[in-house]
């Protein structure tokens, strides 16, 4: 069966480039093909062109092949070239060497093919020559609307469409299902497919993007967001080139379909460079932060990725900062481990309401533990009613149930399904037992869409990802509420170098509080300023040619009287500089907790905001959090909550309870500064002194990049 | 078949208590029974006594039942009481209420039964009355040598012996294998059994200890260490009563059999009390530290526990501080994730030797990545030789191989087995693929004992636990080398309260350096001391009735001349105390990095040593490490390496590079102080000032417990 698109040439623009609609339609054709051509078909079983035909043997649509001489291979009709195909196919698989692919792609485009999949390597990943070939392919795609998967990938499968566009034998065993796999690596794509199969799950579309010359992660996310067969997306990323655009795509996609991601590069954690806030967080941290801000759930392993996607494909919680759950367990020991994991992850296991407890109490023998978790002991006839009662508790968003398989006393579908159906709340089942029991339980629960996972650890994981998904969606929804300073000055050009005084003026103009100060060009001016300001003051050298003020003795603290002022000015005057008498006299800040607040510009993710606790130890333990700008109050609260030393903010050891709203406002302002001034490569407030009533930038640094002042 | 033991009465002591040999033999009889009696047998399928007979239907030995009236149930001959049994059975299963168990146990002991297993609850876990029943059971065991499993447990299985001593249906599906499961909770025992089955593994003995009134973790570890069917032990702990003894057992067992453990209570991490070093680490941290010191590998989840035990049952590395590994992967993407996880865990992936690289280079096409990891691209015919070459590299202790199943190009047994056989080094396989392929690969690899795991995450885990096992065994072997101060004074009785000066004297007597100081009872004495000491000095109030010296202004730093000394003495004299002129004059310490070093006495684990970085932030981020005393240099190095802020010790940000040997010696001394003085409940050096050439105790606190001075 052929599609409705006779030509891939862009009909909706007149610019010589294919239109977006055509590109989008062709992407859909490629991944849901009803006709496929194998270019480079072969009778030699060792050749990719033979393997492609073998894996496509069960394809229910039209299958043709391109071969210079043959008229038929394995029962598949052959044509000498793509131009000779009787109809334009949705997908052409190019099982030919790299150097032949450009010509083939051009022919495919001319014949109205939807997309081509190139398995070969030998392109951008190998050097300049390969990169040229790859660019030629990209040009053909851009101009004609032809889509390209790869090159350098093991391909994709769409089991429901009977399309096994991969040369790896065994991939045809991947079952159809409702989880999409989207991997940067073909090997990870296959791994995830098999891991999902191991969980009893199948895939809708599972694609390895390879070099992603044309079809990239964003294209796929947009496609999958609209795909009726996909309920959740499992995403694997190694590196991200156009992060900001990916973030924006995620913001659109994740409210519709849950996205779970693994990001390679954990080993870089701890690999912190030592000189700048900009290097406090490795780029993987920025990637993870941006994915979370885009509403995705990020996990550490492929095992967790597969399991999380399987759960979220069936159930999501409504957006909420923290979801409340209850655990009902038939066995105390596993229940303790689940509770442990949930609490370690910060999940709220609140006290159940009095009516709930009373109802459950009537269903359980004395001496069972009825709080949260609820330990029923070995499940009895009242188990379904206990689940139901817990689900009906107004304080509870989701119910987790664990029970080792005992079919004679616990029928999972009967125990869990009514509670979900009556309340609409997710009710999840964790179990273990003989294989036969598990298969039956999974079959029974599938009808109601109840997630079932194996073992205590995975039930805890299920709860944790439900909560994370709901929180990230809540954060995403809040972001529209990020406070904007009405009088934000916009992108007035800055010229460098920018000294502390100018940097603080910039901060102040964005609403960040700074100490009262006066910039003095002479000793007399300094003395007048001293008279005017509240004592004690700090005297700082303000020469633009002095970078390391403190190290050179250019900062004198706690100056209380005229004699001390004179001594300070004398000391500073001895520092070799072109402007020895230029000083900043500044009121001493009250005591508080010192943070570092910075802004950096990531080549992929754009402006980012970084917050950490101040001091050498905080740097040594790398205790900081990053987010891509703009950030709202909720984002900053989330960042602060992720700090290991967050207790420092809450009145620890006699320290003041910090004004978190003031921190959030300052962080949001840093985001706006970065947004408004593309010429700034980095800003840093170190320290940001915080106490009960505000946050004060005691020192400020603004670094202009090479593109300083260029919008 | 009956055993050789006609009576359980202790024949090898004359004290009225059963001898250890009898107890040990009876434990062996109970867990490897050749004859079983079910007490409380029943025809009612809802009763435990019926379920017990059902699960034992396949038992190959002698099966009898006790029932007051019946002569036969389900074909099993019944006797009215245990006394009436024709022969003393190895195991009696008491499927009767709690209150009837004591009488039954007494009868069992009299009839020469090896051990009884009590499933019922209603004992110690329910209150004083139950505790009395439980104590009666314990008394019977102690006096007669009868062993008891439980009460309050789901029992145990020994599939190879055909013994399913559990009432949970389905447990009979657990396959025989070479991994022992030892769980505090019956539910966790079953969970682990099923998880192992899911990995294609079986169990030797899988036991849930329940209340562990008689048979406890130590007994089981000793039994399993000798068990010819057990190659690794999977251990689950919730709480440990006699930790010190468990540690000593582990020290004996783990060099013979690998032990992997999960400890419940992670949620307590971060639940740090705020006032003492003693509370810096929750008790779970002490448990984990002690298990590691005993040579066990501790993991976080049951999934990891099952997988780690399955790997270590087949391969161990020789004791070594860090093992070096190489990864050979057929797919780059999964290889990157494995490398990531290994490096994050600190595994050494060294450069391969030149000869190795040359040999491998000849086997691979150009442009494959031949460093460490080695990315072969799709496996080719040279794959086995690559594995072989890597295994032969002298720098490599273990080889990890990952390849998605492609039976036509990669035969796992052929690729991996020769490399192991030629070198004796562990060669591990990680894979994924269609179920049939995996089953065949697992079967093929089983013959050579090659561990096979599913997916990238688990291959990384396998490498990580091999390394941890080898490191913990190395640490255990080093512990004999803990430096002992020859002139250690032993347990001279201490009387309290102990002031700073006395505390420092104690430290000094154990070889811990303290600043030069003089305790002065008058202003004149203080002035003489000042003249004698190097300047600057610190002047500290030394009144025993002043606890918070610094907060009260009782510590004056940086005193450089006579006027400053007078001012300091004046200031201290104003503090209300019975001894206003008693001061400690002490030389100021050079700059350095401040640590906290402490000793605490854990009720279960005994004396422990705690090390953390100094300062409020370090406390807020809970960056400290604990070990049970005694500790050697290697232990302390391990502790310091576990600090998140360990970079602070290595010349971070201009700080001195710390003398780790001096820290280790001080920590070892703290351990000896705790050992020698049982009256001390807590010691704390805060700060321990460390620089390039030593560690100096600037302040010291010794707290005597209620048992102060009592040996």
From TrEMBL, chains A, B:
The ATP-grasp domain, residue ranges: 504-540
Family annotation (SUPFAM superfamilies): Glutathione synthetase ATP-binding domain-like, NAD(P)-binding Rossmann-fold domains, Succinyl-CoA synthetase domains
Gene Ontology MF term list: ATP binding; metal ion binding; transferase activity
Biological processes annotated in GO: tricarboxylic acid cycle
Originating organism: Lutimaribacter pacificus
Listed InterPro entries: ATP-grasp, ATP_grasp_subdomain_1, CoA-bd, NAD(P)-bd_dom_sf, Succ_CoA_lig_flav_dom, Succinyl-CoA_synth-like
Keyword Thylakoid included in the entry's annotation: no
Name the record gives this protein: Acetyltransferase
Gene3D superfamilies referenced in this protein's UniProt entry, alphabetically: ATP-grasp fold, A domain, ATP-grasp fold, B domain, NAD(P)-binding Rossmann-like Domain, Succinyl-CoA synthetase domains
Positions of region (Disordered): 1-27
């Amino acid at each position: 069966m052929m599609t409705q698109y006779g030509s891939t040439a862009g009909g909706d623009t007149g610019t010589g480039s294919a239109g977006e609609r055509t590109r989008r339609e062709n992407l859909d054709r490629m991944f849901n093909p009803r006709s496929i051509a194998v270019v480079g078909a072969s009778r030699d079983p060792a050749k990719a062109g033979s393997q492609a035909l073998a894996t496509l043997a069960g394809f229910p649509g039209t299958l043709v092949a391109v071969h210079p001489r043959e008229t038929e291979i394995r029962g598949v009709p052959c044509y000498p070239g793509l131009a000779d195909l009787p109809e334009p196919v949705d997908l052409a698989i190019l099982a030919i060497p790299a150097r032949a692919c450009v010509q083939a792609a051009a022919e495919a485009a001319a014949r109205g093919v939807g997309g081509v999949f190139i398995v070969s390597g030998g392109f951008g990943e190998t050097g300049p020559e390969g990169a040229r070939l790859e660019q030629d392919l990209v040009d053909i795609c851009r101009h004609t609307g032809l889509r390209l998967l790869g090159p350098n990938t093991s391909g994709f499968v769409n089991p429901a469409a009977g399309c096994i566009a991969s040369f790896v034998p065994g991939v045809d065993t991947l079952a159809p299902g409702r989880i999409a796999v989207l991997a940067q690596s073909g090997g990870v794509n296959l791994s995830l497919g098999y891991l999902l199969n191991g969980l009893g799950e199948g895939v809708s579309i599972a694609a390895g993007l390879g070099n992603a010359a044309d079809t990239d992660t964003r294209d796929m996310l947009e496609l999958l967001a609209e795909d009726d067969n996909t309920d959740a997306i499992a995403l694997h990323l190694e590196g991200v080139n156009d992060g900001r655009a990916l973030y924006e795509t995620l913001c659109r996609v994740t409210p519709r379909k849950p996205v779970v991601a693994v990001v390679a590069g954990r080993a870089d954690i701890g690999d912190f460079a030592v000189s700048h806030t900009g290097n406090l967080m490795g780029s993987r941290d920025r990637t993870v932060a941006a994915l979370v801000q885009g509403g995705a759930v990020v996990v550490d392993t492929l095992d967790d990725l597969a399991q999380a996607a399987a759960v979220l494909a069936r159930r999501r919680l409504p957006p909420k900062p923290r979801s409340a759950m209850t655990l009902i367990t038939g066995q105390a020991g596993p229940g303790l481990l689940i509770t442990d994991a949930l609490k370690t992850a910060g999940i709220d296991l609140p006290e159940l309401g009095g009516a709930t407890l009373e109802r459950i109490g009537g269903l359980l023998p004395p001496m069972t533990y009825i709080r949260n978790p609820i330990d029923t002991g070995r499940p009895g006839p009242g188990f379904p009613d206990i689940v139901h009662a817990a689900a009906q508790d107004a304080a509870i968003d989701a119910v987790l149930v664990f029970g080792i398989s005992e079919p004679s006393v616990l029928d999972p579908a009967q125990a869990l399904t009514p509670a979900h159906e009556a309340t609409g709340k997710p009710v999840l089942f964790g179990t273990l037992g003989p294989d036969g029991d598990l298969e039956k339980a999974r079959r029974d629960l599938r009808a109601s869409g109840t997630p079932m996972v194996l073992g205590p650890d995975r039930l805890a994981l299920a709860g944790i990802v439900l909560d994370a998904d709901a929180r990230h969606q809540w954060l995403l929804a809040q972001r529209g509420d990020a406070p904007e300073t009405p009088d934000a000055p916009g992108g007035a050009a800055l010229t460098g170098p920018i000294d502390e005084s100018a940097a603080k003026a910039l901060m102040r103009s964005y609403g960040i509080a700074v100490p009262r100060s006066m910039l003095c060009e002479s000793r007399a001016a300094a003395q007048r300023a001293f008279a005017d300001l509240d004592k004690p003051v700090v005297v700082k050298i303000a020469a633009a040619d002095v970078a390391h003020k403190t190290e050179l003795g250019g900062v004198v603290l706690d100056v209380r009287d005229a004699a001390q002022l004179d001594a300070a000015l004398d000391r500073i005057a001895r520092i070799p500089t072109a402007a020895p008498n230029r000083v900043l006299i500044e009121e001493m800040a009250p005591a508080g907790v010192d943070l570092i607040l910075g802004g950096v510009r990531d080549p992929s993710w754009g402006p980012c905001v970084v917050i950490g606790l101040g001091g050498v130890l905080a740097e040594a333990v790398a205790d900081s959090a990053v987010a891509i700008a703009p950030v709202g109050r909720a984002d900053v609260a989330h960042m602060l909550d992720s700090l290991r030393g967050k207790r420092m903010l809450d009145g620890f050891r006699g320290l003041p309870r910090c004004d978190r709203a003031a921190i959030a406002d300052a962080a949001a302002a840093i985001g706006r500064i970065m947004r408004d001034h593309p010429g700034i490569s980095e800003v840093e407030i170190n320290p940001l002194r915080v106490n009960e009533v505000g946050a004060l930038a005691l020192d400020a640094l603004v670094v202009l990049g090479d593109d300083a002042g260029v919008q």
